[in-house]
Design goal:
This protein is an alpha/beta fold. It contains 10 helices and 8 strands. It has an 8-stranded parallel β-sheet with strand order 7-6-5-4-3-2-1-8. Helix 2 links the parallel strand 2 and strand 3. The longest helix is centred in the C-terminal third of the chain and has 17 residues. The two termini are 19 Å apart. Bound molecules: 1,3-dihydroxyacetonephosphate (13P).
């Protein structure tokens, strides 16, 4: 059985009130409701309620996404978001372990693993991000680093879960730089991730996304690869016209 493509939008710390709803209306005009892909939009927490209403009113197969979650249901954790709260307000998917969280806010693999498990246990999909830095890439350590991150971040995560585990390979040096990885690099890394997932007992249906400077122009070269099941999209996903074009071109 082939894996359905997933084009997931990570809005990061962008968009103001009203812009989430306007984006979904525009996207609904641009993308066919029968599109052969799953979509997801992850906004900042205060926009989730606005986005949920807009997504619910749209016929698009789009999930509501958050950009992180804590592993505890409640407690003294100023600035964090409870997975319980997110699930209760209708969040269906959570990005976890993004390199911006790992590097700027020092989230270690051990915490990432707890966050992934917490999201899955509450019925939300978890999009686990992994990827090497420029320095690690330059010293030829990419595969070693990425596979170690994968293993450590899945430490707490059972191989079989009701909700979906998705992996996103995002080389740090390709994020927001306009310098996407080459299809050769992505092919090799996704193949290695697929193999490791198998060795760890995860399903062959686990989707592996590529992320890092994806555009409507370069997406076909990634989607042509056997182990690329979609993309986690930053900058391009902020504009409904560009996001819709990426989805369209990614399905050719
Ligand atoms: P860009 O598409 O802006 O490079 O961002 C990728 C990313 O970090 C998605 O999570």
């Amino acid at each position: 059985m082939s894996r359905k493509p997933l084009f997931a939008a990570n809005w990061k710390m962008n968009k103001l009130p009203g812009e989430g709803a306007a984006f979904v209306s525009a996207l609904t005009e641009l993308v066919d409701r029968g599109v052969a892909a799953d979509l997801m939009i992850a906004s900042q927490a205060p926009m989730l309620v606005e986005l949920k209403a807009a997504i619910s009113a749209s016929p698009l197969p789009c999930k509501l996404g958050a950009q992180n979650c804590h592993w505890l249901a409640s407690g003294a954790h100023t600035g964090e978001n409870s997975p319980e709260l997110l699930a209760k307000i209708g969040v269906q998917s959570v990005i976890i372990g993004h390199s911006e969280r790992r590097i700027l806010y020092r989230e270690p693999d051990s915490e990432v693993a707890l966050r992934v498990r917490a999201a899955l246990e509450r019925g939300m999909d978890a999009i686990l991000c992994i990827g090497e830095t420029k320095e690690q890439f330059d010293s030829g350590k990419s595969k070693e680093v990425v596979l170690a991150q994968l293993k450590a971040s899945l430490h707490e995560v059972p191989a079989r879960t009701e909700s979906e585990l998705v992996i996103a390979y995002e080389p740090v040096w390709a994020i927001g730089t306009g310098l996407a990885a080459t299809p050769e690099i992505v092919k090799e890394m996704h193949g290695a991730i697929r193999k490791e997932l198998g060795a760890l007992g995860y399903s062959t249906q686990t989707r592996i996304l590529y992320g890092g400077s994806t555009t409507p122009e370069n997406i076909p070269s990634f989607m042509a690869l056997e182990d690329v099941d979609g993309a986690l999209i930053g900058g391009t996903s902020l504009d409904p016209v560009k996001y819709a074009a990426l989805i369209k071109n990614g399905l050719i």
